[in-house]
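ok so heres the complex, two chains, lmk if somethin looks off
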Amino acid sequence: QKEVEQDPGPLSVPEGAIVSLNCTYSNSAFQYFMWYRQYSRKGPELLMYTYSSGNKEDGRFTAQVDKSSKYISLFIRDSQPSDSATYLCAMTSPYTGANSKLTFGKGITLSVRP
Amino acid sequence: NAGVTQTPKFQVLKTGQSMTLQCAQDMNHNSMYWYRQDPGMGLRLIYYSASEGTTDKGEVPNGYNVSRLNKREFSLRLESAAPSQTSVYFCASRGDRGWIYNSPLHFGNGTRLTVT
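and the predicted structre for the whole thing:
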């Protein structure tokens, strides 16, 4: 079993829809969770991070973590065509410095139709 | 503000050829990373460098070598390219302030490599 599993997609939704993107993980040492967004032909960029169970909001985006179930989600409200991108979950255990390494999910490609 | 610059953007190699992928960052970051991204496999770490003069293997180092030339530059070399190394290669850097989760990786825009 891979350490991080992410729904493969792709996902296509109409503009204005609520989008739910999900990842599960198996490594209990993972304590910090991130979502990266990657536009076509570009490198990933950090969208949100969280390190506690519960919800974290940033504008139209909400990151949710359930450590007991080893499950994380990213919700996008009022989705826009500009949200069309690949979304990658990433996670790490609590070590400092450059030896901290991220484990990424495979990514899911989202398309928001006008 | 260039950030992380990768060259070349595209490359086609024949099996057995060698090449070096170049990466430079202008953010004065200590840590630099090389990833490959394949459909259905996600991002996988090849090598990383915690500081100038140090390098360490990641998840998939076989077939690759790296050089941390100075603080700005981190190159990835394929000595004898194989079709299995067809991929998109990303270089990334990060500062060392804070935890990795809130001191984000800054990625370049990738090198698209095809080995025939």
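quick notes: Chain A touches chain B at residues 4, 6, 8, 32-34, 41-46, 49, 51, 88, 92, 94, 96-102, 104-107 (CB under 8 Å). thats all i got rn
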